[in-house]
Amino acid sequence: MGSAPALLKGFLDRVLLPGFAFKYQQGEKYPQPLLVGKTAHLLLTMDTPPWYFRWIYRAPGLHQISRTTLAFCGVKPLKSLMLGPVISSTLPQRQHWLKQARQLAQRV
């Protein structure tokens, strides 16, 4: 529905905790990010064409994860790979997407 799936959001809420991902400091307006120097590749699957998600919807789920979650903790998103529409994809298309995902993971 344009944002992160509930299971992913719940996972991030349980993993990116104060003391691990960020630290509150007395007298400071914003928490200190503790994962500075870490990077991430974002892979989004969707049933919306990626161009429509990016240009019409303005990629809300991508912004939510990259800016308000990862960047808050100091993680720098490097590359985003948007795959879709999955619902009408063919087997060769899904195999191509898996190949793209593998290549992205090997760049680390």
Keywords:
108 residues; two-stranded antiparallel sheet; 4 strands; alpha+beta; Rossmann fold
- Are there runs of 5+ residues with pLDDT below 50, and where? none
* Number of individual domains: 1
Strand order of the largest sheet: 1-2
**What is the CATH top level name?**
Alpha Beta
CATH topology: the name is Rossmann fold
Give the CATH H-level superfamily.
Answer: Flavodoxin domain
Helix content: 40-55%
Output the helix-strand order.
Answer: HEEEHHEH
Structural class: alpha+beta
Q: Describe the biggest sheet?
A: 2 strands, antiparallel
Anisotropy-based shape: elongated
Number of strands: 4
**CATH architecture verdict:** 3-Layer(aba) Sandwich
The chain-level mean pLDDT equals 94
Tally of helical segments: 4
Cα-atom Rg, whole angstroms? 16 Å
Amino-to-carboxy terminus distance:
30 Å
β-sheet strand percentage: 15-25%
Describe the structure.
The chain has 108 residues and is of the alpha+beta class. It has one domain (6-24, 33-106): Flavodoxin domain (Rossmann fold). 43% of the residues lie in helices and 18% in strands. The chain has four helices and four strands, in the order H-E-E-E-H-H-E-H. The strands form two sheets. It has a two-stranded antiparallel sheet. Strands 3-4 form a two-stranded parallel sheet. The longest helix is centred in the last third of the chain and has 16 residues, at 91-106. The protein is elongated. The model has no long low-confidence stretch (mean pLDDT 94).
Write the layout of secondary structure elements.
Blueprint: H1 6-15, E1 22-23, E2 32-33, E3 39-45, H2 50-55, H3 60-73, E4 76-83, H4 91-106
Parallel strand pairs: 3-4
Antiparallel strand pairs: 1-2
